[in-house]
Amino acid sequence: MNLNATFIAQIVVFLVFAWFTMKFVWPPITKALDERASKIADGLAAADKAKTNLALTEKRVSDELKKARESAATVRGGAEQQAAAIVEEARAEATRIVAAAREAAQTEAAVAAQRAREELRSQVAVLAVAGAERILRREINAEVHADLLTNLKQELS
Fold this sequence. Notes:
The protein has helices spanning 3-136, 146-156. By secondary structure, it is mainly alpha-helical. The protein has one domain (3-156). It is rod-shaped and about 190 Å long. It comes from Candidatus Dactylopiibacterium carminicum. Belongs to the ATPase B chain family. The chain crosses the membrane at residues 6-26.
């Protein structure tokens, strides 16, 4: 065999093999590689998007927490003011109750003192009659001398 004929046959076989590979083998491989590259690019884009979304979500969460803290501070301040107002109302009510009780006690004491004076006057009148009876050693008719007893009560007042 001739070296040139073998060389030409090998070139022809190589060209047929290259054409066959480029026509039937190469496109599925490039297609698979392109799909793989596309999936990787999509995955990287999704990861970047997820990072961006995570950063935005963290910012929104921190903003919401800040708002919630401010709202809680406002509510706490309102509650403290309301509690102070309730305490003041209770103090004012207690003061009113104490004043009313003091006034009622003073009125009751005045009424009791007046009753005691009236009772004392009656007892003094009885004692005066008894004393006069002993002095005179005779019985005095209380019905006859009612005016005398009334005048005596008025003088003691």
